[in-house]
Amino acid sequence: MTSATVYDLATKDLDPPFAVVDLDAFDANGADLLRRAGGKPIRVVSKSVRCRYLLDRVLARPGFEGLMCYSLAEAVWHVEQGTTDDIVVAYPTADHGALRRLAANDRARAAISIMVDSPDHLDLVDAALGQDHPEIRVCLELDASWRPLPGVHVGTRRSPVFSPRQAADLARTILSRKGFRLVGMMAYEGQIAGLGDAAGSGVKNSIVGWMQRKSIVEIAKRRAAAVRAVRALTELEFVNGGGSGSVESTGAEEAVTEIAAGSGLIGPTLFDGYAHFSPRPAAMFALPVVRRPAPKIATLFSGGYIASGPAESSRLPTPYLPEGLSLLGFEGAGEVQTPVAGEAARHLRLGDRVWLRHAKAGELAERFTHYHVVIGDRVDRTVPTYRGEHQNFG
Asked: Which strand (E) or helix (H) includes residue 158?
């Protein structure tokens, strides 16, 4: 029995479009992340999941500790829902309303650490809450990009704090400001964690692999020096680093106390291109065939679920099952229809399902209000995504 047949059988009473999560694959991916982490705790990146049932499930496993949220409003909501009492907000906030909710909630203030990378972020909190606001937990972000030459920047554009001296200077500023408590440090090496080293041609893969090896050595030295500089000024509860693509290298750093990961639980198509790990596809969506414009083309309803990032083909959804289908270069995945082509299309009839995978882990949950959780050939339960709980954190 093929996987397509299994999923079709499990969801035979559902009308597509809909999305499913293969719970066996999700759990297996979690086990693989723990294996790769080598005993260091993993902080679950919520943006890659965006479903409380799945977040609760993974947090219940030993080895996964706390959330890394992408929005302060999201973090406060999770505290209110009782998801966890340990949350780091990975991105600085300018949301005055969420800051006021944080300040007014003792449980939230004890649980949540907000991200800062300049004194301006402290000023913004003061402006939102007033000079005599309750103590806010903060995490200092160190930029983890690779800069081999002046003017060359490889990695994501995040914190302006790059050197150990800059980290210590900002730490002193935080420690001197009333109403703030420095509790942690974070550095996300996107050029390692978020870039596949087996996703392109042989030459491209060799270049990416060379860059990543150099960057791993550089960030390990610089991060260790920055952590020493800050720890000389104050105790830190945690030092966070990495992502699903860099669990091994980040976990090997003595200065890092925990690893961030989330996409590895879901296994989207962008994570097919890594040489050292292969997550199982755990989330996918079904679209119905609504046209047969040619013998080897079937047109599906809807499907234009394009991932964020650079506007290129890697951000398109990918036909998964039945095997042997591909998008048309001229149309791609459309708002109201998505043609797929290939020999397998000859056998598709109106109403049949085609299963597709999203390019990124969490963004599928923005398109569907519910996930149907599949175990084997049955739907075990149907659970809401953030959207299904009427939550939209931007």
From this structure: none
Note the pLDDT tens digit of each residue in 235-255. 999 999 999 999 999 999 999
Which residues touch 256 (CB under 8 Å, ≥6 apart)?
40, 223, 239, 240, 241, 242, 250
What is the maximum span of the chain, computed from C-alpha positions, in angstroms?
Answer: 71
Same domain, 223 and 340: no
Cis peptide before 322 (omega within 30 of 0): yes
- Does the residue 1 lie in any domain? no
CA atoms within 13 A on the CB side of 228: 10
Cβ 90 vs Cβ 140: under 8 Å: no
Q: Kindly report the CATH number assigned to the domain that includes residue 341.
A: 2.40.37.20
Domain boundaries, position 109: 23-266
CATH number where 161 lies: 3.20.20.10
For residue 87, how many C-alpha atoms fall within 13 Å in the half-sphere facing its CB?
A: 31
Using CA atoms, how far apart are residues 338 and 301, in angstroms rounded to an integer?
Answer: 6
Confidence of residue 1 (pLDDT cuts 50, 70, 90): very low
The reported pTM is 0.94
Beta strand pairing call for 297-301 and 283-294: antiparallel
**58 occurs within a structural domain:** yes
Over the stretch 108-151, which tens digit does the pLDDT of each residue have? 999 999 999 999 999 999 999 999 999 999 999 999 998 988 98
| 87 contacts 78 by C-beta, under 8 angstroms | yes
353 domain residue, yes or no: yes
Task: Give the whole-angstrom CA distance, residue 263 versus residue 272.
Answer: 11
| CB 225 within 8 Å of CB 219 | no
